[in-house]
Amino acid sequence: MSAHLLASGGGAEFEAPGIDIFDWPPLWSGAPFWLTKATLIVALSAIIVIAFSWAAFRNPKLVPRGVQNVGEVTYLFVRDQVARPTIGKEGDAWMPFLFSTFLFILVMNWMGVIPVLQFPVNSHIAFPIVLALVVYVAMIFLSIKHQGFVGYFKNMMFPPGLPKPLYLILSPIELLSNIILRPFTHAVRLFANMFAGHLLIAFFASVAYWFLAEKLTVLGAGVGLVGFLMTIVMTAFEIFVQALQAFIFTLLAASYIGGALHPDH
Amino acid sequence: MLAEAVTVLADEKFVSGSLGSVAYGLAAIGPGIGVGIIFGQGVQAIARQPEMYNTIRQNMLLGFALTEALALIGFVVPFVHP
User: Fold this and answer.
1) pLDDT in tens, A92-137
2) Site annotated as Reversibly protonated during proton transport: where (chain B) (predicted)?
3) CB atoms within 10 A of CB A72
């Protein structure tokens, strides 16, 4: 569990944690190869999301009490900030998907700052890829369903009202950005934020551990103190970034779906 | 002379160190400017029309996310292709 600390220990000199802190072997020797800390946390997150939604909405009261308040605030936030502004009137029909996507990513990200677990699952790119792929397939399917196959590419590559020669430049860029770059950046944005944040916290934490506990010297104590304080500051900042990224992922998913349903804007 | 310079530049022995960090620094310039513009203009827009706060903030975050992706790709690429 203490990979951060092990990464800095051992040698005579301080060694910053590298990408090896993301490598988790199977939980115990002889366990199936896929049963690692990451998959365990994903399963845990799914259970938390299901349990939370169950507790909040299983028996709704007209005057909400307890966990139903939190559930309704979250639901209203996703509906009023994400679904309605981007998709419009049909936004409410997409709420089940958007709400569970938001909550699932939020819980998965927040696992990065919960003690003992301390691993944002989305820092393994496989998980964001799957999430982005779901949105991508939905986007392509809905676009072709609502605009037709030819209409989809026509709306995407040839927006009306531009001088003719401009299409030579614009069309390939639009095609590239819509078909290839969209799912790529959608997944990489979430992945890279979690990856960088986890690496940053691990770095400051191992600085603090190394200079305050492992090799305590008069000169090094100041550095260790800075590392200690920065760990706290960065953890607070990470909680914010993790929530923001969950929101942005949902917002982009909704705007892709909205763009597929209403090609004009 | 020129050919020599070209071979020197091309020889990887002459370029060493943590190039990934340098590349990330370069990749962060453009998005840094972009994010600054987005939030600067966003704050200005909110100051002018506070009643449009929700719409402006949503578009601000959308533009921020799209711009930030460039910097993040610059951060990830050295890990993918060292």
Assistant:
1) 999 999 999 999 999 999 999 998 888 999 999 999 999 999 999 9
2) 68
3) 14
Domain boundaries, chain A: 16-261
What residues 11-70 of chain B have any CB closer than 8 A to a CB of chain A? 54-55, 58, 61-62, 64-66, 68-69
Name the pTM for this structure: 0.86
CB-CB contact of A203 with A16 (8 Å): yes
Cβ within 8 Å of B, A 183-202: 185, 188-189, 191-193, 195-196
Residues 6+ away with beta carbon under 8 Å from A58:
none
Nearest to A12 by CA among A203, A215, A218: A215
Neighbours of A177 (CB within 10 A): 14
Handedness of CA A189, A191, A194, A200 (dihedral sign): negative
CB A173 within 8 A of CB A158: no
What is the tens place of the pLDDT at every residue in A192-237? Answer: 999 999 999 999 999 999 999 888 888 888 999 999 999 999 999 9
Contact across the interface for B73 and A188, Cβ inside 8 Å: yes
Q: What sign does the CA torsion over B1, B2, B4, B8 have?
A: positive
Is A221's Cβ below 8 Å from some Cβ in B? Answer: no
> Percent helix, strand and coil across chain B, each rounded to 5?
90, 0, 10
Q: How far is CA A255 from CA A38, A86, A102, A250, B19, in A?
A: 29, 5, 14, 9, 36
Residues A122/A129, Cβ–Cβ less than 8 Å? no
Q: For residue A210, what is the DSSP state?
A: I
The ipTM estimated for the assembled molecules is 0.72
Distance CA(A263)–CA(A265), nearest Å, equals 6
Distance CA A264, CA B77 (A): 35
Compute the distance between CA of residue A114 and CA of residue A249 in angstroms, rounded to an integer.
Answer: 21
